């Protein structure tokens, strides 16, 4: 443990020692860059990383020894409601979103903020329709559900897709922000990526779920503090919220109800709210990392409270992000850094602003970068823990029928977590060479989530669905959504699809002769491009889920539907159980009344459930 901490200090010391060179390189690369990282900033970042390591050390060596895989992966179902809620919210916020949402407001307006409505809609859906099944079964791997409801092939398909999704997505979620930060802060991207993985692999592999949840809670506090400080100072420097609001209002950036029903509109009310509800349902209702955290507490009532707390925290974070975007426009309204070639991508806009306007406050850039690192750490830690759970339950046990001795379960899970951390780190160097295919990797997250949600929906809501239908629906949806996504990316690369942006200007940029640049008029897409390729990315999850359910249901009826009488009703959603219980067929016994189940706030479940 001391050796690992020594390595961490050496890396930070090396970063600080190279600060002067990095600062000169950054300023030479960006003539308008006025500040760079100071030793105070490195110290703030170092403290955040050190505390994260110490939390992992505490739960690994100073608390009750974790022996079984359930202890390591589920925290012994002994976590508190608030820490679990904070961890849940932190795992949903990636560094990509922290940099991308303000830039979205800057270039596109406030329509995307309406995704906050999706948070409110998705919580009752999760709490009343999907959560009771998970809490009743108490499964370490949520995909074990498919083995109980359908067939182990369904379980392996879902597990394989999730593993591919998370390994690729975590690499992108760490590398993309590190690349953006390196362009304007002078913090080398390889150092940033290495720090995230070294720290994350250490505390996630040593402390298990308890360390992940408690570290996420600490990192969520750091994240919120950095966001509040940046937006507060930004508002003051920009002349107050009234001035900032007026600048956005005058350029038509304030819009919440773009009611055009066309699915090709990138951000409309329908794509953001309806499509966004499907996307966030994949995160809350069917994501292994989320379900695993639900299992870390004892009662369903705790989870329901935690869901509302996490949703409210997400609304706060998104609101701050968009206020920050409004500040960015007020500052750069007469000199767009992207058009002035001061930055090469919109994800560099916020770091550029922080370094130029907050760099005069010692420690603030360090706090900002610590917040970005915190978001990356939360994403990776949750992924590593969930991948370890899937490997133990679905691969070792489900595929190879290897029974891990209970006394060695935690050791197996620990080494598996380390393996996936190293594998994800190695993928960073592959992701680095993907270039424009990065967007495909990000879109793949929503695609797989929608398909998995559709598979769970088939199992819990369509009692006649069978394994053949579920696999057919999932594969059909995967091919369709991949075709749409890849086709869209090719069209973008060929210049056949362009994104419309709001008003920007370069009239006050020093050394530029252009008086203004205005992109507020829609850009016509080529008529040769299929309408499928112009579908908003926010509909990918909805398409994946709906196609999986429709095709799965049709194929199930064509190949011989499942007889509901042969099902264990604990595998069905409460409303479906209630409806079947009221049906004329009364020969099914042992069914709990739906009304009584809704009143039960202390469902503990039974891990030995199996179909009748």
Automatic annotation (TrEMBL):
Residue spans crossing the bilayer: 41-61, 82-100, 112-135, 156-181, 187-205, 217-245, 265-285, 306-332, 364-390, 411-431, 437-459, 471-492, 537-558
Subcellular localization, as worded in the UniProt entry: Cell membrane
InterPro entries: Na/Glc_symporter_sf, Na/solute_symporter, Sodium:Solute_Symporter_SSF
Membrane topology reported for the UniProt record: Multi-pass membrane protein
Keywords, comma-separated and alphabetical: Cell membrane, Ion transport, Membrane, Signal, Sodium, Sodium transport, Transmembrane, Transmembrane helix, Transport
Gene Ontology annotations for the cellular component aspect, listed alphabetically: plasma membrane
Pfam families listed in its UniProt record: SSF
N-terminal signal peptide: 1-17
Record's keyword annotation contains Nucleotidyltransferase: no
Annotated GO biological process: sodium ion transport
Listed GO MF terms: symporter activity
Stated family: Belongs to the sodium:solute symporter (SSF) (TC 2.A.21) family.
Protein name: Slc5a8 protein
Species for this entry: Fopius arisanus
């Amino acid at each position: 443990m001391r050796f690992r901490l020594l390595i961490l200090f050496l890396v930070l010391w090396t970063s600080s020692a190279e600060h002067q060179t990095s600062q000169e390189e950054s300023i030479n690369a960006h003539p308008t860059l006025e500040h760079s990282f100071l030793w105070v900033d490195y110290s703030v970042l170092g403290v955040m990383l050190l505390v994260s390591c110490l939390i992992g050390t505490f739960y690994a060596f100073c608390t009750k020894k974790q022996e079984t895989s359930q202890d390591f992966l589920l925290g012994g179902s002994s976590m508190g409601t608030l820490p679990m809620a904070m961890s849940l919210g932190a795992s949903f916020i990636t560094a990509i979103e922290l940099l991308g949402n303000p830039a979205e407001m800057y270039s596109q307006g406030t329509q995307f903020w309406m995704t906050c409505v999706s948070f409110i809609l998705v919580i009752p859906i999760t709490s009343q329709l999907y959560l009771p099944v998970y809490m009743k079964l108490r499964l370490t791997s949520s995909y074990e559900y498919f083995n109980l409801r359908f067939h182990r092939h369904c379980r392996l398909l879902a597990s394989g897709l999730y593993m591919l999704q998370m390994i690729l997505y975590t690499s992108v979620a760490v590398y993309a922000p590190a690349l953006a930060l390196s362009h304007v802060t002078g913090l080398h991207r390889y150092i940033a990526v290495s720090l995230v993985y070294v720290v994350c692999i250490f505390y996630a592999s040593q402390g298990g779920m308890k360390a992940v949840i408690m570290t996420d809670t600490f990192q969520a506090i750091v994240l919120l503090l950095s966001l509040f400080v940046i937006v507060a100072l930004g508002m003051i420097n920009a002349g107050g919220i009234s001035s900032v609001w007026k600048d956005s209002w005058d350029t038509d950036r304030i819009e919440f109800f773009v009611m055009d029903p066309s699915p090709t509109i990138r951000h409309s009310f329908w794509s953001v709210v309806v499509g966004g509800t499907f996307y966030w349902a994949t995160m809350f209702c069917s994501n292994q990392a989320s379900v695993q955290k639900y299992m870390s507490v004892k009662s369903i009532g705790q989870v329901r409270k935690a869901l509302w707390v996490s949703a409210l925290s997400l609304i706060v974070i998104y609101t701050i992000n968009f206020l920050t975007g409004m500040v960015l426009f007020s500052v750069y309204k007469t000199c767009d850094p992207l058009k002035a070639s001061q930055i090469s991508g919109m994800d560099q806009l916020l770091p550029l602003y922080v370094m130029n306007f907050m760099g005069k406050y010692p420690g603030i850039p360090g706090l900002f970068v610590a917040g970005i690192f915190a978001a990356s750490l939360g994403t990776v830690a949750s992924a590593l823990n969930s991948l370890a759970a899937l490997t133990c339950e679905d691969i070792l046990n489900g595929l190879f029928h290897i029974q891990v001795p209970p006394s060695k379960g935690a050791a197996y899970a620990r080494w598996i977590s380390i393996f996936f951390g190293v594998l994800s780190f190695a993928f960073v160097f592959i992701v680095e060479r993907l270039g424009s295919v990065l967007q495909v990797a990000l879109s793949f997250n929503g695609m797989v989530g929608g398909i998995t949600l559709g598979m769970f929906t088939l199992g819990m809501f369509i009692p006649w669905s069978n394994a053949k239908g579920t696999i057919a629906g999932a594969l059909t949806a995967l091919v369709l959504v991949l075709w749409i996504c890849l086709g869209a990316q090719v069209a973008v690369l060929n210049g056949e699809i362009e994104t419309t942006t709001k008003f920007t200007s370069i009239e006050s940029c020093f050394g530029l002769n252009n008086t203004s640049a205005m992109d507020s008029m829609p850009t016509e897409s080529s008529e040769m491009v299929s309408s499928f390729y112009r579908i908003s990315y926010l509909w990918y999850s909805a398409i994946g889920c709906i196609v999986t359910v429709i095709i799965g249901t049709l194929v199930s009826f064509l190949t011989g539907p499942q007889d509901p009488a042969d099902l264990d009703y604990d595998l069905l959603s409460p409303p479906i159980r209630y409806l079947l219980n009221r049906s004329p067929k009364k020969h099914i016994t042992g069914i709990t009344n739906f009304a009584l189940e809704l009143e039960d706030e202390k469902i503990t479940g039974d891990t030995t459930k199996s179909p009748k």
